[in-house]
């Protein structure tokens, strides 16, 4: 199970709206994407989740004096799974806004993604194959969760397609 979240944080199944997705990627240090690249995420992903933060009421302000931003939930973390739903699952878009890091949010998102695989993936055969590309900031979290490096047996590779 996912660890309990601190007060004010709520975990949701689904995907953030495109503007929030784009902001989370850029603000957390992931490669920025365009709205056209983000548009198919919800229909082409296997599962996703995100975390919102609702600030506690400010006792020094009356309800009517609180600004709109102080009342609204802010999307502060996300992650999703792409894959076939049968045996192959690739975790992507793990991101937490810098001002909300070190609060267990990345672990909560990753825990929920892995729990969904355990709950929904078929139980027959060799089991699920779960992969991710680990940027330096996330490696400790992934290792604590049980992920291991695949080298030298396998090596992640990519084909850059810059469309120039």
TrEMBL record:
<dbReference type="Pfam" id="PF13508">
    <property type="entry name" value="Acetyltransf_7"/>
</dbReference>
<dbReference type="InterPro" id="IPR016181">
    <property type="entry name" value="Acyl_CoA_acyltransferase"/>
</dbReference>
<feature type="domain" description="N-acetyltransferase">
    <location>
        <begin position="22"/>
        <end position="164"/>
    </location>
</feature>
<dbReference type="GO" id="GO:0016747">
    <property type="term" value="F:acyltransferase activity, transferring groups other than amino-acyl groups"/>
</dbReference>
<dbReference type="InterPro" id="IPR000182">
    <property type="entry name" value="GNAT_dom"/>
</dbReference>
<protein>
    <recommendedName>
        <fullName>N-acetyltransferase domain-containing protein</fullName>
    </recommendedName>
</protein>
């Amino acid at each position: 199970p996912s660890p309990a979240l601190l007060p004010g944080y709520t975990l949701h199944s689904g995907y953030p709206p495109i503007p929030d997705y784009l902001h989370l990627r850029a603000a957390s240090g992931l490669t920025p994407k365009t709205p056209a690249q983000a548009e198919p995420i919800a229909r082409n992903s296997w599962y996703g989740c995100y975390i919102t933060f609702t600030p506690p009421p400010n006792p020094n302000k009356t309800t009517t004096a609180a600004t709109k931003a102080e009342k609204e939930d802010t999307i502060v973390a996300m992650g999703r799974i792409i894959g076939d739903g049968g045996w192959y699952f690739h975790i992507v878009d793990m991101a937490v806004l810098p001002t909300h890091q070190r609060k267990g949010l990345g672990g909560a998102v990753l825990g929920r993604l892995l729990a969904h695989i355990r709950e929904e993936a078929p139980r027959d055969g060799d089991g699920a194959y779960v992969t991710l590309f680990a940027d330096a900031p996330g490696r400790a979290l992934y290792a604590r969760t049980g992920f291991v490096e695949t080298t030298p047996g396998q090596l992640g590779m990519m084909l850059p397609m810059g469309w120039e």
